[in-house]
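Intended use. Records like the one below are meant for learning the mapping from a protein sequence to its folded structure. Do not use them to infer anything beyond what is encoded.
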Amino acid sequence: MASLMENLMDVLEEEGGYYDALLELSMKKTEVIVSNDIPALQQITEQEQLLVDQVNDVDKRRMGTMEDMANVMNRDVGTLTIPVLIKALDVRAQEQRRLSEASDKLKETVKAMARINEQNWSLQTLDDYGGLKGLFACEVYNHSAMMDGIDANQEQPYDALLRRGNRLFCLATDDNHDRFPPEHPLCDSFGGFVMIKAPKLDYETIFAALEHGDFYASMGPEIHSLTFEDGMLHVETSEVRSIHMTTNARRAEVLHAEHGKTIHEATFHVLPSDGYIRLQIIDREGMRANSNAYFTDTLFA
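Structure written out for the chain above:
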């Protein structure tokens, strides 16, 4: 276990170094975008991609080390976080401090990157994010962007990543800045969220549900149940005007309510060749909810 702990600390510090370099590039990118220097932007993008490849590699090593430690401790790796690890292991104060510092520094650097890249997000295309691996999820709705006048329903990038072989979830978020009070029409709170299925409300349970994909993304409509049996997918929802099933191919299925009416359930036929399936429901106000993608090689296993 001591050697695994040493490996974990080394990997966290190495990963932190790569993120520091990415943060520096992100700060440079802001200046380049403002000056409209396209050649410089291309150069930065290429450097970023090299660093992203290195981050993906070290992230895999970190996850492998965490899995080895979880096996030794006879714990579920999905609930084994750094704070839990520090608390559970009887390690020396010096090791605790080094592990905490490496973890905290990495978190702060990633947060700083998010703040910088939020300024640059409008220039992202499939060329920028299409090659990324190891992603947890893709944001399909950003309520703050919608309040700023931007079409923030972005399911297409999610499908693009799925069709490139990625297995990731989808998120809806407020990204709220609270510039207006709740009663104001431009309030950017309470417009995008994830609905989590969990037996209790505590840190470990909620994060385990997120890591396992036990949630869906929504602007308001609700998915009450989702079941699969004998090649048939059945969903029960709140009252909506349409229920859509998207696949890895052009094949899709949809159920529409009659004019002026609503529906609250649908059943779709799933084929092994569909690759993956995911659902979207739309209510009478145009509000949407999206399920995560489910892969047919697992459904039909």
